[in-house]
Amino acid sequence: MSAAALSLRGLSFAYAAGAPQVLSDVSLDIPSGSVTAILGPNGSGKTTLLRLLLGLLRPVAGTIHVAGRPHEHYSRRDLSRRVGLVPQDEPVPFDLSVLEFVLMGRAPYLGLLELPSEADRRLALDALASIRLTALQHRAVPSLSGGERQLATIARALVQQSSILLSDEPTAHLDLANTRRVLDVMRALGRDGRTLVFTTHDPNLAAAIADHVVLLRDGRILAASATAAAMTAESLSATYGVEVEIVEVRGRPLVITR
Hints:
Number of strands: 12
CATH topology: Rossmann fold
Number of domains: 1
CATH architecture: 3-Layer(aba) Sandwich
Oligomer: single chain
Structural class: alpha/beta
Order of helices and strands: EEEHEEHEHHHEHEHEEHHEE
Distance between the termini: 36 Å
Radius of gyration: 18 Å
Strand content: 25-35%
């Protein structure tokens, strides 16, 4: 891993003037090429942090640097080429096919009213092949299972060719088999050298694939380091407000509540 892909300094945010701060004085470096889990209970500010990194929200204080450049120095299009999002869930208003849906990831590279090229189509087909969804390319997205839809959303992010991928609760509402499929794809992305940042409230999900963990509670960073160093019984107990025990399974921590 090299320099930080994302750097935050003194970041604070509230949804309205005078409202309580959702994030307070957050300073954080996310290493390039890392798989980083932002871990914390519901309401800790995880999703808000992702929306700030995407530029969908503006902080009330502090700075965000993407690949060493201030956030505000990027145009919307340039930032979209650098940072992609795999949302937890999103409505699809039309019966788009899986291939059409994935091709939407090429939008940052197309002009107004410009249609995807044959090269764009090849990128989309390659992305579908990489996550084993080629057979579903003509299926309507609303007809997919939850896991298939999440994989299609990952494929759309892949064709965006962003070096940084953000994912909000990537396995929420998925069954065990589909959770395994999504985690396998996320591991592969990490091996390919992309910077992957995902939020979760599940410490065992973080332990399964992350090599860097950020612990967040009430909008404040409690720890940010390599997985084994961050995920101690003491730090996780402080994060979740319950006593936990950690045992090692196959070289990874497994978190058990007492």
